[in-house]
UniProtKB/TrEMBL annotation:
Catalyzes the reversible epimerization of D-ribulose 5-phosphate to D-xylulose 5-phosphate. The keyword Metal-binding applies. This is Ribulose-phosphate 3-epimerase. CDD domains: RPE (cd00429). InterPro entries: Aldolase_TIM (IPR013785), Ribul_P_3_epim (IPR026019), Ribul_P_3_epim-like (IPR000056), RibuloseP-bd_barrel (IPR011060). Keywords: Carbohydrate metabolism, Cobalt, Isomerase, Manganese, Metal-binding, Zinc. The active site is at D39, D177.
Amino acid sequence: MTFDRSIKIAPSILSADFANFGQEIRAIEAQGCDWVHVDVMDGHFVPNLTFGPPLVKAIRPHVKTVMDVHLMIAPVDPYIDAFAEAGSDVITAHLEAGPHIHRTLQAIRAAGCKAGLALNPGTGIEDVEYLLDMVDLVCVMTVNPGFGGQKFIHSQVEKVRRLREMIGDRPIHIEIDGGITPETAPLMAEAGADVLVAGSAVFKGGSVDNPAPYGENIRAIRSAAEAAQPGA
Ligand code: DX5
Ligand code: ZN
């Protein structure tokens, strides 16, 4: 994984056919996505349950791009090695998931993965300052985590703008997650985000038997975002 600030589209397989993950991943990659976003939920930190390390390991051979694993679980630390061994490229943990996020980020890097830090919509960016040397990505949640298909929370645009200033020249991605569409993506690209997670807006209208809409959806989000990126 080399670092750059080009727009990267990361479809969330939360909106894929759960009985067909391998084919769905091959379809979105063939249709031009950059990363594959994997939402792990525990029914405790968030009010929904998805899947654990064995499933992440099973889908790994199908992912040729970047496997971006978003852990919405508490506690996190006991599971880091299992998700690393499952083949995660990026492991993102929530600032709100426990009292020792510094230790968690250290453990993610020690396990050989890029370290991501996720912030819920109600969390400020002040606590990110002393973690900047330990993160490869900050994920700004633009919905309350737990479900796909929710409405974008506009107050997060300003948060991304301030975070982008704080990051300066450091090689840290800003990822946004939730409610991203061709309408909301440019607001965030303009503010400084480069990794755009989208579930429902990528998978809508398509299927493994009819994957062309995935490509159209990915291109619509990408071109809207690229046109709004600073310097574009
Ligand atoms: C929300 C997840 C998101 C979600 C995005 O808890 O972290 O990745 O799947 O879905 P959409 O794009 O439908 O809001
Ligand atoms: Zn996510």
